Amino acid sequence: MQLVRSFVGSYTRPAASTIGVFCFAMPDEIEVSFVMPCLDEAETLEACIRAAQEAIETGSLKGEVVIADNGSTDGSQEIATRMGARVVEVPERGYGSALMGGFQAARGRFLIMGDADESYDFREALPMIEALRAGADLVMGSRFRGRIEPGAMPWSHRWIGNPVLSFIGRLFFPSPVSDFHCGLRGLSRKAFEALNLRTTGMEFASEMVVKASAHGLRIAEVPITLHPDGRSRAPHLRRWRDGWRHLRFLMTLSPRWTLFLPGLVLLGVGALLLALVGLGPLALGSVTFDVHTMLAGSLFVIVGYQAVTTAIAARIYAFEEELGPPVAWMGRAFEVFTLERGLLAGAALAGVGAFLIGQLTWHWAQTGFGPLETSVTLRPMVLGSTFIAVGIQTLLMSFLFSMLGIRRRRSP
Ligand SMILES: Nc1nc2c(ncn2[C@@H]2O[C@H](COP(=O)(O)OP(=O)(O)O)[C@@H](O)[C@H]2O)c(=O)[nH]1
Ligand SMILES: [Mg+2]
Fold this sequence. Notes:
Order of helices and strands: HHEHEHEHEHEHEHHEHHEEHHHH
Radius of gyration: 29 Å
Number of strands: 9
Structural class: alpha/beta
CATH topology of the largest domain: Spore Coat Polysaccharide Biosynthesis Protein SpsA, Chain A
Number of domains: 2
Bound molecules: guanosine-5'-diphosphate, magnesium ion
Strand order of the largest sheet: 3-2-1-4-6-5-7
Strand content: 5-15%
CATH architecture of the largest domain: Alpha-Beta Complex
């Protein structure tokens, strides 16, 4: 494995070492690896490997076929070996794990991935290789811009699952990708290494696109054809489980859309309500808004602020874990918003709240702790509680941000 890595690494920097120069000059260097994830695909594997081999032949490629197997029990491995493909055993289960294992073991400068169930025609990878040679980092196949043969995709995937998830994906992570889940795609080894992919299941397909977009990689798209798969049993993909895994992944990687923007809207609406009825009741025609509206405004502000600050925590976490895109402003933000400043700001906000409630309590004491006139006295109570809640949230989040950032500051 280490050997493979240094071999490939040296390819991109041929002058870096004598070994590099040696590798660069090797006559049988592999340009393209066709990597197929495989779990019990004995019915179709042979045809897929043959198609990939035909692509290698037609394109006069220096290529190899790698079968990333997840412990098939139907003899897939023997079929692959007999066909001259290289079998890589990947112990960790799942579509993403299998592909990552296959990519790591592959020797090509370019990696083509595709299912082993005959739903894709590997000969259609040739234009992808052209695009990679022309400098693309990731080349996506698009079934929607190409062709979907009758019976190849259930209508719920055709009209709901894929378009909706692709739309959300493009909204969250702007990219020219029309088909987020296409299984036939190509990427350069350099891109694979830069993306630091992590997910083990079918959501791996989304992770690759999302991160490529976030890292600003060059993404190209090639129309392709989807054929009905050639096997007699049901697909591994489970509609609800895997659809949800994709959606969950998009949502967790985009705190901007799941937390930050909704939180900001809530915060804005809440602040507006507080401003409108904070000083006294507001009558619009026959409708009067009073302290109850103020309480709703307070709730919106608190929940909105929690969402916004949680989004920031998620962003820091993603940055620290290299799950999201690199962020240039993060380092500077840590310099400006230090733990001490956060604690001071939180204490100041909570202090304002304590002052308002303190004044009210003083007024109450003056009346001998008797009954208070609700519509007047509830206002400073609600406002004060809101300030205290927001202040305490600021204190707590300052600690959380700081904890999340510790690792980065330890290793600059
Ligand atoms: N190695 C491995 N391959 C898998 C796994 N799940 C799916 N695959 C392969 O991924 C490809 C796509 O799977 P499939 O069930 O056809 O899903 P669909 O085409 O998205 O409906 C096929 O080649 C499968 O053999 C897995 O857990 N491990
Ligand atoms: Mg399939």
